[in-house]
Input
Amino acid sequence: MANWIPLWLHKLSSPPVFYRFAGTLRPWAIALALVLGIVAMYGGLVLAPPDYQQGNDYRIIFIHVPSAWMSLFIYAVMGIAAFIALVWRIKLAEVVAMASAPIGAAFTFITLVTGSLWGARMWGTWWTWDARLTSELVLLFLYLGVIALYHSFEDRRQGARTAGFLALIGVVNVPIVHFSVNWWNTLHQGSTIRLLGPSTIASSMLWPLLTMMAATKFYYFASLFGRVRADLLALESGKDWVRQIAENEVRR
Amino acid sequence: MNPTRQRRLTIIIAVLAAVIIASALTVYALQQNMSYLFTPSQVQAGDATSYKTFRLGGMVKQGSIERSNDSLKVTFTVVDAAGAMPVEYTGILPDLFRENQSVIATGHMAGARFVATEVLAKHDETYMPKELKDAMAKAHAGKHIDESANQDKQQL
Output
C-alpha cells in the first residue's frame, strides 16, 4: 500500500474504528450545530439591521445561502467518497457517499424553496428558467437519482458502487452551479461573499451568515456520522465487532 | 498500487475527463447562444430578430416612468450603456421596481416599442443597513447609485 497515506487515516477507514470515532464526535457536532444555529438565528433575525432595499425580506438569506453552500459542499464530499469507493473499494467510502445523498438532497430542496419564496417577493416570480435556478434543480435531480439508483439494487455494495458512478459523473454540475451567474446573464444575482476581493455585505449581516454556515457544516457531520454508524452496523452485521456491540446492548 | 486498482483508476479518470470535456464544450456552446436576456443595444443591433418573444434587460431610466391614471398601464425606458428602449406594460410591478433599478421584461416588439407581459426586478448582490446607505449617500452625494448602476451594466 502507498506509504504516503498516514497510518491513522488508514486505521480510520476500518468500520469498527470509524464507528467508535464517529460515536465520540457526534454529540459534539450536534451541540456545536445547535449552539451556532441558535446564535446565528438570533443574530440574523434580531440583531442584524433591515436591508436598505429589501427591508426585512432579505433575512431569508440566513437560511437560503448556507443551504445552497451545503448543497454544493455535500455533493463534492459525495463525489470524492464515490471516487475512493470506485477505485479502492473501501467500504467506508461507499457508506459515506450514500449516507451523504439524502442530507444533500434536503439542503438542495431547502435552497430551492427558500429561493422561490424570496423570488416571489423581490423578483416578482416564483420560478424562472435562468442558469442558476436550472442548474440547482439539476443538482436536486442528481441527488434523487443517486438515492434511487442505490436503493434499486438488492446488494447494498453493488448499489453503492453503481450510484457512486452517477454521483461521480454529476460532479461536473457543481462548478456549473457555482459559476452560472458569471458565465450567463441570469436573473439571479452574483456572489455576495467573495474569497478574493471585498464582499458586498455589511459586517453586521455577514457574521450571522458565516455562523450559520458553520452550524450547517456541523449539522451535516452529526447527521452523516449517525447515518454512517447505522449503515456500518447493518453492512457488517455478521462480524465479531458488531456482535460484541449487540451483546453489550443486551446486557445493559 | 496493484494492477486492478491501477486499471480502475485509469478507467475512471478517462471517463471523468471525457465528461468534463463534453460539459465544458456544452457550456461554451451555450454561452454563445443561450441568452437569458438581451440588452437594448443588442436588440437595436438586431440580435433578437429571430425571437418572437424574448427578455429585455437593463436599467430603468431616471424620470422615464409614466403611470396611466385610469389603468395599470405603465411606460418606462430601459437603458444600457449604449442603447435605450421604450417599454409598455400593463400589470402589477414587483416591489423593487423603481428608477435606476435593473429589470428584466419579457415580451415582444411592437414597432420601436417593447410590449412586456411580465416585468421582473433583478436584485444586486449588495446587502447593507439603511443607516449605512443613507450615510454613504450623504458622503458621496449620489455617487454610489451611479456606481451600482455601472456594476449592473457590466453584469448585463
Observations:
- The domain at 40-124 of chain B is CATH 2.40.50.140 (OB fold (Dihydrolipoamide Acetyltransferase, E2P)).
